[in-house]
């Protein structure tokens, strides 16, 4: 049984032209680090929240989201509470938005234990100290008495990680956990997350817009576009031979850090902008921005997610584009 | 736009000994300390740093929104006035340096269409004839890849990338010698960011404008700039051609920044220990 | 992305309230339109001359001759109600126009100049806040005499700090946005940016506040008239009508007092609903 399993999850909101999520299939096994990569409007955050049974207000939800076998679509309050206070935890982009600014760090960390799990204050405090040390904060005893504004963004994000771990979850959902932080702080937070994940054998789903961060931290990557998963593969495979033109476009849009002397090779951007919720397409949602879109094929029906090699790809032309000539997607003159 | 650049590399911007401190009560924070650099016509300088490095303060001093405590900013040999009195002085300063801000959602006036915004800038800067202004507006919009539809639109009808293009057009309308970009692509989606980066490269080539590109993103700086200046807590750590800097970073802080950029085979554990060595607890 | 977040955070109750608000908003708006029209055409609409007291027909009940009866002095209550709407419209309107105009000027100037200008103006406004509007108006009446002019001027001054403080806060918030910095960098003058660019962006919110203020000003002016310090008889006025009906109330004939009182309450509530709804709507559009 997978730790987290999405099965054809679809979410629609009234007043939008396309579903927010359209048939998401995604699996995270125990001890596995998986990334979900997408741009704004791709639905990656909605997907992550669904793993805690948080669905947009007024949404029509179809399909399944199972956390250790419990289906959260249509789950009752008791089942949701079990998942949220025991099995799964979530870390968000802005640590300051997730903590009450007038309460001490200690209260933030111990309250769930004392109020939900009925622990004694001493036991909860001991656990909080242990967790603050585990996330690498230098002075746990002092931090427990501090207020959120006394800590930097990076330190506060560690407190949030400690908070997510108080209930000893087996699944950690990280929604852009380092986007608001400096690059060197990002590295520290990812180091802490990586260490805790290995030590505790956590299943980790990293939601990010940064495909390089996903590659650096994760075993497997799902790429989302306009509410659908367009490609999933192991990190090595995805970078060596992206099979979906969107994945290739994302990689081609990122300037290389090290390159030979002289002016760098020109980037090959994806034209246009990500598809909003007020737009829809009868066929492949990416067709309007795709260099390889074929009229009469890509604009007819949405491509199914199919196995190509060891990757799953949702592209009508995946066969001819990649399997025939690996890496053509990355070159401009193809 | 007419090419202001002469054939040989003409100095556009000369910054020397720039310093800015902020006082709150008894404590004093040195935001920028002894910053010096020059920028030639058609050149692009990256100012790289993390939060608290002083890079945004530097940008604000270059556009005259902050007053340096010491040091000098020369634009085409003329000192950038610390205070401006009167319309002529205001317009002269506007022609020296323009800026594109980070947030495409807040940097345009929500009540005014893109076309009207450009028209307002052109009118302010002495373009009297409405027909000529309209033609120039179209030209500027075409230069940043926008058309009639975007010209007639209010900012909220446009995507983040389109708004940032409009902000670039608005800055170019003044025909400044130097364009400051303060994290101008970091709020954009990756696929859109690449479009704007290519646009900036094209503009630089076709106009000879000087770019000061303020960013935390080394890869993006590598793509846009010739030289990079690394700031850490207000001080210049390193200032070299950008390819050199990235291939053989000299200062430990530059090395840390470079190692911090995620990539396959990345080792965040070693980065955090190096960071602690460098900074100590902050 | 924003659409998703809005979907995630909007509680189902909010949607219901918005619907209810829409219905109530329309009713109140309609009522205010009627109020303004009545005030404009009162002399032609009033069936009788409300200043004419038919001493032989005091405290007549509602009927064919007098739609809402008469007061103790034999004045037709319905006609007085219609003509009294004029002072109830003109007085608060003057207060709101004057206090909003000066409040905008003071608030914008304070925010734009910043520094010690802002500090000094802030303290002055604090001092003005300390005086209740009604008290200032009573004081003005004591000095300048009864009538409409002195209370209106006094209340305009007393209401000004509310607008000034609102405008200052909004302007500071707006100034922090980079589009204002962009205008500065383009070379526009401070006056142009503050008045032509910043003000229109905060104007709608100020308008909403002024609409609410209208209701309060109406209430304060009616109170003054009731105390006999405002509009003087025989000019018809709702506050004065209540005042003149006190004896009738004691005699168990409260209709001539109830009618103007209900009118005051309805108009004040309508202005509040319209103003707050306007504010909510504009706040919703911004985000």
Automatic annotation (TrEMBL), chain A:
Task: Provide the species name.
Answer: Streptomyces beijiangensis
**Keyword Nucleotide-binding on this protein?**
yes
Q: Which SUPFAM superfamilies match?
A: P-loop containing nucleoside triphosphate hydrolases
Q: Which UniProt keywords apply?
A: ATP-binding, Cell membrane, Membrane, Nucleotide-binding, Transport
Which NCBIfam families does this chain map to? oligo_HPY
Q: Which family does the entry's similarity section mention?
A: Belongs to the ABC transporter superfamily.
Q: What region holds the ABC transporter domain?
A: 4-251
Q: What is this protein called?
A: ABC transporter ATP-binding protein
UniProt KW Cell membrane keyword: yes
Q: Which GO terms describe its biological process?
A: peptide transport
Q: What residue stretch is flagged as signal peptide?
A: none
The terms under GO molecular function for this entry are: ATP binding; ATP hydrolysis activity
GO CC: one term?
Answer: plasma membrane
* Places the protein is found: Cell membrane
Automatic annotation (TrEMBL), chain B:
| One MF annotation (Gene Ontology) recorded for this entry | ATP binding
Give start-end of the signal peptide: none
One Pfam annotation reads oligo_HPY
* PROSITE patterns xrefs: ABC_TRANSPORTER_1, ABC_TRANSPORTER_2
Domain (ABC transporter): residue spans on this chain: 13-258
Q: Write out the entry's keywords from A to Z.
A: ATP-binding, Nucleotide-binding, Transport
Keyword Nucleotide-binding among record annotations: yes
Coiled-coil region(s) = none
Q: Which GO terms describe its biological process?
A: peptide transport; transmembrane transport
Q: Which SUPFAM superfamilies match?
A: P-loop containing nucleoside triphosphate hydrolases (SSF52540)
InterPro entries, A to Z: AAA+_ATPase, ABC_transp_ATP-bind, ABC_transporter-like_ATP-bd, ABC_transporter-like_CS, Oligopep_ABC_C, P-loop_NTPase
Q: What is this protein called?
A: ABC transporter ATP-binding protein
Whose protein is this, by species? Streptomyces beijiangensis
UniProtKB/TrEMBL annotation, chain C:
Keywords of this protein's UniProt record, alphabetized? Cell membrane, Membrane, Transmembrane, Transmembrane helix, Transport
Q: Which residues form the ABC transmembrane type-1 domain?
A: 85-275
What is the topology of this protein in the membrane according to its UniProt annotation?
A: Multi-pass membrane protein
Q: Which SUPFAM superfamilies match?
A: MetI-like (SSF161098)
Tagged with keyword Membrane: yes
Q: Where are the transmembrane segments?
A: 27-46, 89-112, 124-144, 150-167, 214-235, 255-275
GO biological process: one example: transmembrane transport
Query: Which InterPro entries did the record assign?
Result: BP-dependent_transpt_permease, MetI-like, MetI-like_sf, OppC_N
Family label:
Belongs to the binding-protein-dependent transport system permease family.
Q: Give the protein's recorded name.
A: ABC transporter permease
Q: What is the lineage of its organism?
A: Bacteria, Bacillati, Actinomycetota, Actinomycetes, Kitasatosporales
């Amino acid at each position: 049984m997978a730790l987290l399993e999405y099965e054809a999850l679809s979410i629609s909101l009234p007043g939008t032209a396309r579903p927010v999520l359209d048939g998401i299939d995604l699996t995270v096994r125990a001890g596995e680090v998986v990334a979900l990569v997408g741009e704004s409007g791709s639905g990656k955050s909605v997907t992550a929240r669904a793993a805690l049974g948080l669905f947009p207000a007024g949404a029509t939800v179809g399909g399944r989201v199972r956390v250790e076998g419990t289906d959260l679509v249509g789950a009752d309050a008791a089942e949701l509470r079990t998942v949220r206070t025991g099995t799964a935890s979530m870390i968000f982009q802005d640590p300051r938005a997730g903590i009450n600014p007038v309460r001490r760090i200690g209260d933030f960390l111990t309250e769930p234990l004392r109020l939900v799990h009925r622990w004694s204050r001493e036991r909860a405090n001991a656990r909080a100290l242990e967790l603050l040390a585990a996330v690498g904060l230098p002075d746990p005893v002092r931090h427990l008495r501090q207020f959120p504004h006394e800590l930097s963004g990076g330190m506060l994000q560690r407190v949030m990680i400690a908070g997510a771990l108080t209930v000893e979850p087996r699944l950690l959902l990280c929604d852009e956990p380092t986007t608001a932080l400096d690059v060197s702080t990002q590295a520290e937070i990812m180091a802490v997350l990586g260490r805790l994940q290995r030590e505790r054998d956590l299943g980790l789903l990293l939601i990010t817009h940064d495909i390089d961060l996903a590659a650096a931290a994760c075993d497997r990557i799902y790429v989302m576009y306009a509410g659908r998963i367009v490609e999933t593969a192991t990190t090595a495979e995805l970078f060596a031979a992206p099979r979906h033109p969107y994945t290739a476009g994302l990689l081609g849009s990122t300037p290389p850090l090290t390159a030979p002397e002289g002016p760098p090779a020109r980037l090959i951007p994806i034209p246009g902008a990500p598809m909003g919720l007020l737009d829809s397409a009868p066929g492949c949602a990416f067709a309007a921005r795709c260099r390889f879109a074929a009229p009469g094929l890509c604009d007819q029906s949405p491509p199914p997610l199919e196995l190509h090699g060891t990757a799953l790809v949702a592209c009508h032309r995946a066969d001819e584009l990649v399997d025939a000539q690996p890496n053509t997607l990355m070159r401009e003159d193809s | 736009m007419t090419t202001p650049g002469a054939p040989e590399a003409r100095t556009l911007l000369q910054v020397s000994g720039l310093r800015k401190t902020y006082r709150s009560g008894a404590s004093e924070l040195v935001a920028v300390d002894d910053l010096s650099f020059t920028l030639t016509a058609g050149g692009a300088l990256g100012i790289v740093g993390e939060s608290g490095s002083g890079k945004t303060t530097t940008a604000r001093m270059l556009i005259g929104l902050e007053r340096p405590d010491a040091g000098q900013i020369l634009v085409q040999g003329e000192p950038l006035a610390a205070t401006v009195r009167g319309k002529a002085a205001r317009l002269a300063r506007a022609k020296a340096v323009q800026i594109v801000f980070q947030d495409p959602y807040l940097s345009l006036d929500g009540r005014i269409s893109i076309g009207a915004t450009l028209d307002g800038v052109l009118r302010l800067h002495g373009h009297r004839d409405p027909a000529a202004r309209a033609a120039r507006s179209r030209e500027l919009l075409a230069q940043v890849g926008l058309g009639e539809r975007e010209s007639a639109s209010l900012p909220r009808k446009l995507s983040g990338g389109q708004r940032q293009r409009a902000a670039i057009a608005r800055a170019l309308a003044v025909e400044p010698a130097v364009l400051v970009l303060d994290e101008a692509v970091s709020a954009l989606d990756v696929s859109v960011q690449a479009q704007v980066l290519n646009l900036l490269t094209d503009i630089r080539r076709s106009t000879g404008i000087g770019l000061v590109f303020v960013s935390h993103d080394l890869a993006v700086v590598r793509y846009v700039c010739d030289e990079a200046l690394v700031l850490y807590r207000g001080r210049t750590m390193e200032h070299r051609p950008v390819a050199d800097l990235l291939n053989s970073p000299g200062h430990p802080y530059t090395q840390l920044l470079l190692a911090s950029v995620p990539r396959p085979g990345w080792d965040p554990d070693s980065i955090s220990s190096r960071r602690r060595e460098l900074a100590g607890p902050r | 992305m924003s659409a998703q977040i809005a979907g995630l955070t909007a509680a189902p109750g909010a949607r219901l309230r918005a619907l209810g608000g829409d219905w109530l908003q329309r009713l109140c708006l309609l009522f205010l339109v009627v109020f303004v029209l009545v005030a404009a055409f009162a002399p032609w609409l009033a069936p009788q001359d409300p200043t004419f007291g038919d001493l032989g027909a005091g405290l007549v009940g509602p009927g064919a001759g007098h739609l809402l009866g008469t007061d103790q002095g034999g004045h037709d209550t319905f006609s007085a109600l219609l003509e009294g709407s004029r002072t109830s419209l003109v007085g608060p309107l003057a207060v709101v126009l004057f206090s909003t105009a000066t409040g905008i000027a003071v608030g914008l100037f304070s925010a734009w100049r910043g520094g010690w200008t802002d500090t000094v103006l802030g303290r002055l406004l604090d001092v003005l806040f300390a005086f209740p509007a009604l008290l200032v108006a009573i004081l003005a009446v004591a000095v300048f005499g009864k009538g409409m002019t002195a209370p209106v001027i006094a209340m305009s001054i007393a209401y000004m700090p509310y607008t000034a403080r609102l405008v200052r806060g909004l302007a500071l918030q707006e100034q922090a946005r980079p589009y204002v910095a962009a205008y500065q960098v383009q070379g526009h003058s401070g006056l142009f940016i503050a008045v032509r660019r910043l003000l229109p962006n905060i104007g709608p919110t100020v308008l909403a506040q002024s609409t609410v203020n209208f209701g309060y000003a109406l209430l304060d002016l009616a109170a003054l008239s009731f105390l006999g310090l405002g509009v003087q008889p025989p000019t018809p006025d709702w506050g004065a009508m209540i005042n003149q009906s006190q004896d009738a109330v004691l005699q168990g004939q409260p209709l001539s007092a109830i009618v103007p009182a209900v009118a005051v309450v309805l108009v004040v509530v309508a202005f509040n609903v319209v103003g707050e709804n306007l504010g909510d709507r504009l706040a919703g559009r911004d985000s």
